[in-house]
């Protein structure tokens, strides 16, 4: 017999898959982590209908607002498999703020969106705590977000993440292809791992080869699952420090190395008529990439799907290269001269062999 109109029966939001009380507990658990990201410009606090940010326009001559939106992708499936959810939030932040800084923009604030099958407060808090940690690394405020419980669309432990970050850059300080010149030097910045790209391929190889995520394969210094979950390096503040040191006359462009690999993304910041030649011999191929190649991934595919050890590059004037390497290395980001820019029409290409 069906419940009559007005009776409780099964016609509650919780019975339909949305637990409002659990959502409120999740907010309480994440509050401290979110508040640590606060910048002086933030107006109000967590819980409002919109995030407010007071932009001090007296600081800028001709400010441009920059924005970037991205997600984490199928790396989340690995987090679910290992039941560890406190690192993918850092990945989320890195993917958006490191795109922002590629044009020279300072990240100001970020908002996240978490779609989840069932709100388990501790799991949601772990995810958002990771997002807050990433925001701290980027100097950006986490001014709000949304957790949406989709019990009738997703499995209970399934979730997906997205975020939008907003930044600011002076109009006369925008970096990009227009500034790149013949003779410029390409400075590579080491990645922390696979970052957040190529995980559909990574997971397919791991499954097909029967690799044990809890084991430590030869060449790795810790279990494979830990290596694959290593969060994306957040380069934003390091890149901004480099611009502050060298100015736009010294730093001409940044390329965030994501899907498409090192050559594909470096080519995006080169003008017509110039190409970048990148020497593989200036760095070692990461052991985790070599492991996947041992199990069938062709080198050409590795260099298209993975960052292969380089997560960001700076295209700088030749006289600024040595100082750039010193500054980045001093900030804890391994960096080196990986190539040069010259006449050509190939965009960017890799030469030599990995050391």
From TrEMBL:
Q: Where is the PurM-like N-terminal domain?
A: 65-169
EC number, UniProt record: 6.3.3.1
The PurM-like C-terminal domain, residue ranges: 181-347
Q: Which reaction does it catalyse?
A: 2-formamido-N(1)-(5-O-phospho-beta-D-ribosyl)acetamidine + ATP = 5-amino-1-(5-phospho-beta-D-ribosyl)imidazole + ADP + phosphate + H(+)
Top EC class of this enzyme: ligase
Listed under GO cellular component are: cytosol
One example GO MF annotation = phosphoribosylamine-glycine ligase activity
> Which keywords annotate this record?
ATP-binding, Cytoplasm, Ligase, Nucleotide-binding, Purine biosynthesis
Database matches in Gene3D superfamilies: PurM-like C-terminal domain (3.90.650.10), PurM-like, N-terminal domain (3.30.1330.10)
Key word Nucleotide-binding present: yes
Q: In which pathway does it act?
A: Purine metabolism; IMP biosynthesis via de novo pathway; 5-amino-1-(5-phospho-D-ribosyl)imidazole from N(2)-formyl-N(1)-(5-phospho-D-ribosyl)glycinamide: step 2/2
Localized where? Cytoplasm
User: What GO biological process, any one, is recorded here?
Assistant: adenine biosynthetic process
UniProt KW Transmembrane helix keyword: no
Q: Which family does it belong to?
A: Belongs to the AIR synthase family.
The protein here is known as: Phosphoribosylformylglycinamidine cyclo-ligase
**What organism is recorded for this protein?**
Geodermatophilus amargosae
Q: What is the lineage of its organism?
A: Bacteria, Bacillati, Actinomycetota, Actinomycetes, Geodermatophilales
